[in-house]
Design goal:
Layout: E1 6-8, E2 13-15, E3 26-30, E4 36-39, E5 46-52, E6 58-62, E7 66-69, E8 73-85, E9 88-103, E10 107-116, E11 119-127, E12 132-136, E13 148-152, E14 157-163, E15 169-174, E16 211-217, E17 223-227, E18 237-238, E19 241-242, E20 248-254, E21 259-264
Parallel strand pairs: 3-9
Antiparallel strand pairs: 1-2, 4-7, 5-6, 5-8, 8-9, 10-11, 11-13, 12-14, 14-15, 16-17, 16-20, 18-19, 20-21
Length: about 260
């Protein structure tokens, strides 16, 4: 009879005694979490676990359903059923070679930013031994393999980096430096007579800057107001209606025709 397949005359079906095994090609473990323990979920009469060295030599490390993996590398998992034939016990095995790799929670080294014509682009630089994916402003994602975020709204953002093997998520807030020389990066038009107007302030360390116009837009690019360099500035209203707290941007033109762009809140 052997291990089969052989025909079962009672059912008319072919039968294989070898156990069906369900085991992945790769198993990931998180560094600094202690030894990796694997327990087979397959139904079988017996189990064996072998470690394979660089010369393809195998060393038995467990004869139980459970095994403790000592290190990263290649292993072979074997499950077997037994059958008695002519007074002898025969093993009918099934096996799978798999690899154990380690991963670790990422470290965000830096967040690079580029601001061109009102479009903000962020590039996330990480280090670590892992396979990582990236999300912005939502810890639940969506996540992407791409570490670059383009055409995002100006202002502050939270970056999330997740290890694909489940070793953790790290986050870091990106705080945009909205300061352009001479242009405040925020104002508070709340009627308390402190910082109620947004206006260009002549930098002391520069020569006199003459601006022909200063135009203000909302974050969608809609024109809101034009002010002159010598006025009080913008009070945060349009046609007398206060606008909500948000990020706004400006385009100033100096006497040479050069444009100066930036953001404020």
């Amino acid at each position: 009879m052997g291990c089969g397949p052989y025909l079962d005359f009672d059912t008319g079906e072919y039968v294989t005694i070898n156990p069906e095994i369900d085991f992945p090609n790769t198993i990931s473990t998180c560094e600094n979490e202690g030894p990796l323990t694997i327990t087979s979920t397959d139904e079988a009469d017996g189990f064996r676990w072998y470690q394979i060295d660089e010369f393809d030599n195998e060393t038995l490390i467990s004869s139980e359903q459970e095994v403790i993996i000592p290190e990263n590398g290649q292993y072979r998992y074997e499950a077997y059923n037994t059958v008695n034939q002519d007074g002898n016990t025969i093993e009918c095995p099934s096996s799978k070679i798999f690899e154990v790799v380690s991963s670790e929670i990422p470290t965000i080294e830096s967040i690079g930013a580029e601001n061109f014509n009102g479009n903000l682009s962020l590039t996330v630089n990480v280090s670590g031994n892992g396979d990582y994916e990236y999300a912005i402003d939502n810890i639940d994602g969506p996540y992407s393999d791409n570490n670059n975020f383009e055409n995002i709204e100006p202002g502050n953002h939270t970056i999330y980096v997740r290890d694909k093997n489940g070793c953790g998520i790290v986050e870091e807030e990106f705080v945009q430096d909205l300061t352009v020389e001479g242009f405040p990066n925020f104002f508070t038009p709340n009627g308390d007579n402190v910082n109620d107007y947004w206006q260009f302030i002549q930098p002391e360390a520069m020569g006199e800057v003459v601006l022909k116009s200063i135009r203000i837009f909302d974050r969608y690019g809609n024109f809101l107001k034009q002010i002159s360099q010598n006025s009080l500035g913008w009070d945060g209203t349009v046609s007398g209606t206060p606008l909500p707290p948000s990020t706004y941007w400006f385009v100033a033109v100096d006497d040479s025709g050069q444009e100066i762009k930036g953001y404020f809140t």
